[in-house]
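User: quick one, sequence for these tokens?
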């Protein structure tokens, strides 16, 4: 089975595109093909219309930041950043000045003489980013660069990467398995599955209008609710008829409807069909885990100021917002 199959992707100049998907879906392979570390068995890689498929990695004018940082342990932060410029024959003063500028850009102006072991993980990753940018690449490639960092540093650094990318206008491809990273940073997100690009759209479109059940359930959280087809454009769930997104089977046929937690309307009701089993506070919202009388579970997000009336053990009623719902059999 090929790592990538019928994979076509166009990246616009100055765009930050994230490739998102589970382990083994082919996203890192796609990045390595762009970088020149792997060669495609068919097809081509074009930059500004020129085929670079057979051009070695060191001639492609790309910068790459790895998950493992890959800094030289015997070089200072400044020397690490300047290394690529030295290979390109730049003079010592120019190298040092450019490295200092970039370390200032990533917030490390006071650490340019420190060695990697004297820096935190987040600081090392900033040095790696500055090093990749030093050679002014046409394309910046990021291979899960934040996955080894703790949550707070990861959030800070992803905002920093986005700020720098926008400031410099460098075309960037960011590979991650973290949907929050992808949705918060990217202009567009490509969701991959088994070597295929399932959908590539702006984050809001991807979340609100997923084209397949896989995309819907991989990006965010989804409930699977049993229902039946009513017409060619509507389905019934719990006696409520709602619009369906896409092709609907013949009337009366069973369907599985995908509904996000925020589209579940919950009300305290002593005669309701569901019981709250878990209430998880998440700041402005609280996620409720509901057990229905038929034994199925439903996740619902409610405003935290309303959640006080819905403690575990409370009985509630459930309804759905009147918005088009995706069917699970639409792959």
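Assistant:
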């Amino acid at each position: 089975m090929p790592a990538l199959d019928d994979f076509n992707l166009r990246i616009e100049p100055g765009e930050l595109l994230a490739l998102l998907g589970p382990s083994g879906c082919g996203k890192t392979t796609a990045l390595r093909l762009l970088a020149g570390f792997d060669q495609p068995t068919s097809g081509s890689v074009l930059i500004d219309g020129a085929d670079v498929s057979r051009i070695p990695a060191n001639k492609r004018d790309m910068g790459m930041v790895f998950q493992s940082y890959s800094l030289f342990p015997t070089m200072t932060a400044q020397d690490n950043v300047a290394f690529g410029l030295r290979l390109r024959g730049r003079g010592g003063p120019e190298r040092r000045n450019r490295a200092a500028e970039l370390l200032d850009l990533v917030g490390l102006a006071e650490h340019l003489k420190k060695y990697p072991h004297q820096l935190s993980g987040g600081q090392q990753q900033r040095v790696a980013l500055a090093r990749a940018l030093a050679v002014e690449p046409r394309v910046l490639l990021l291979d899960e660069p934040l996955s080894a960092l703790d949550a707070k540093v990861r959030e800070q650094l992803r905002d920093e990467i986005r700020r720098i990318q926008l400031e410099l206008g460098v075309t960037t491809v960011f590979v991650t398995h973290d949907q929050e990273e992808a949705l918060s940073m990217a202009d567009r997100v490509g969701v991959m599955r088994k070597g295929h690009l399932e959908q590539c759209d702006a984050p809001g479109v991807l979340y609100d209008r997923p084209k397949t059940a896989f995309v819907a359930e991989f990006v965010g959280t989804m409930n699977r609710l049993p229902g039946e087809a009513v017409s060619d454009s509507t389905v019934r769930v719990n006696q409520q008829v709602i619009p369906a997104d896409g092709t609907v089977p013949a009337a009366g046929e069973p369907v599985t409807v995908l509904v996000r937690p925020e589209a579940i309307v919950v009300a305290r009701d002593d005669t309701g069909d569901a019981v709250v089993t878990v209430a998880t506070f998440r700041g402005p919202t609280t996620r409720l885990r509901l057990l229905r009388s038929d034994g199925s579970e439903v996740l619902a997000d409610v405003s935290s100021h309303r959640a006080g009336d819905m403690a575990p053990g409370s009985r509630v009623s459930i309804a759905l917002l009147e918005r088009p719902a995706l069917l699970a059999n639409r792959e």
